[in-house]
Design a protein that fits this description.
By secondary structure, this protein is of the alpha/beta class. The chain folds into two domains: 156 residues, Rossmann fold (3-Layer(aba) Sandwich), CATH 3.40.50.1000; 104 residues, Hypothetical Protein, Haloacid Dehalogenase-like Hydrolase, Chain: A, domain 2 (2-Layer Sandwich). The chain is built from ten helices and 14 strands. The strands form three sheets. The protein has a six-stranded mixed sheet with strand order 8-7-6-9-11-10, with helices on one face. A five-stranded parallel sheet has the order 2-1-12-13-14. The longest helix has 13 residues. It is globular. Keywords: Hydrolase. GO terms for molecular function: magnesium ion binding; phosphatase activity.
Amino acid sequence: MYKLIVCDLDETLLDRDARISKQNEQAIKTFVAQGGHFVPNTGRSFLSIQDDLQQLGLLQQPGQYVISYNGGAIVENAGNQVLTTNPLDFATVKKIYDIARAEQVSGHIYTLENLYVWQPSVAERQYLDQRGVKYMPVPDDSLDFLRTQPLMKIILQDDDPARREALGQAIPKQVTTPLATTFSSGRYVEFNHVAADKGKATLQLAAKLGVKPDEIMALGDNSNDLAMITAAGLGVSVQNGTDVVKAAADYVTTADHAHSAVAEAIEKFALH
């Protein structure tokens, strides 16, 4: 019996309009009503998904959680209490930022509570706005305003997959801090501290809840989901997942993210 479900949001739970379908909503609510923990496990900030938690009946609920920033933080929904973090150091974020600026690549810097963006394209602004993501422009290339803030991750955005791959290969060699490098949403290459990934955070939260790995279901679509898919007792790829994710998964849904793939998996494996 599955007691904990961890689930990616963009291109997994959310449809093409960044919404949760009624079928997904009902399946999740039924799972929670039978005593389960449904945990969004996302690269995004926990503050940017409060409306999604509200729809699912999880907003401000004790004993329910969000894993944010690709495993960079575990947060209890009641009071948005941050339980653990795995931040990057300032020097590493500044180095990656300087490399991106020199390459004329746009991107995001996530602190624990704020998102700063530089040089977003019109399409990127639309992508963020559609998801209700609040952000501010980077005000100063020195990044001195970030020196005292917890820095959760830095991501670069480029529409060219070959360029994203090249950046993902090159940047870790130019910094001293070990990095976890992943790709997401067909648009980002993401850099976290090596201690932060969705799988490690899933197992850490499961241990807190007294849940065994074989009692966990994980659902995702892209490389930043691989760690949780392989850590869980049941790893699920949605139909629109990458080939690598599908190969690693125990089950691939018939439906894609636009057609309630999460509900398909929950109804098949997790409901009494």
